[in-house]
Design a protein that fits this description.
This protein has helices at 2-58, 65-81, 89-109, 113-116, 119-154, 159-162. The protein is mostly helical. The chain has one domain: de novo design (two linked rop proteins), CATH 1.20.1440. α1 (2-58) runs antiparallel to α5 (119-154) and α2 (65-81) packs antiparallel against α3 (89-109).
Length: 188
């Protein structure tokens, strides 16, 4: 009888530990998913601002069509790559290309006094700068959350249940070094 009670207590304790571990893994996975959502919100905002900016400078920069085309294509690629709902290397690469294209646009726009004095362009650039900063913070939050999640699923005792229950490693949002820089937007 005493052996039965001891075994029952051991089973109850093991089940309780398993439930706590599983709930902790689910919580961390959900935090990673929430962090992805925050990045997507900011990227969508950037994707929405880019066509307005291109339209605002298009008439003035008519002969700089290749720069405008690169920005438009980079935006389209970034939107398409982000449609998967998780951070992928393809999405990171596409977003980095968009950042580079925007830097090129702003560098070329520096030589146009009409653009530097256009209130609409200046407002769009300010919004884009704010969005770029928010993207940077969202990426940092995502990477910290992924680090916590990956560490949890790779350490004992969680590793014992993480793999069998389908908890897999998540990728970090690794941006190219120049992608960390906010595009230059001071056209005054």
């Amino acid at each position: 009888m005493e052996l039965g009670i001891i075994l029952l207590v051991i089973v109850v304790v093991l089940v309780a530990i398993g439930v706590l571990l599983y709930n902790g893994l689910v919580t961390r996975r959900n935090r990673v998913d929430e962090a992805v959502g925050q990045i997507e919100v900011q990227l969508k905002r950037r994707h929405d601002l880019v066509p307005n900016l291109v339209a605002a400078v298009k008439d003035v920069m008519g002969f700089e069509q290749d720069v405008l085309t690169r920005v438009t294509e980079a935006r389209a690629n970034a939107v398409a790559a982000g449609a998967q709902g998780t951070v992928t290397r393809e999405q990171v690469r596409a977003e980095n290309q968009l950042s580079g294209a925007l830097r090129s646009l702003f560098a070329v726009a520096e030589s146009y006094p009409q653009i530097r004095s256009n209130e609409n362009v200046l407002a769009l650039q300010e919004q884009l700068t704010t969005t770029e900063n928010q993207i940077s913070f969202a990426r940092q939050h995502y990477n910290a959350t992924v680090n916590e999640y990956n560490t949890t699923i790779q350490t004992i005792p969680s590793v014992l249940i993480a793999g069998p229950l389908g908890f897999t490693r998540r990728e970090f949002f690794e941006a190219e070094p120049e992608a960390d820089q906010v595009p230059v937007v001071a056209l005054r």
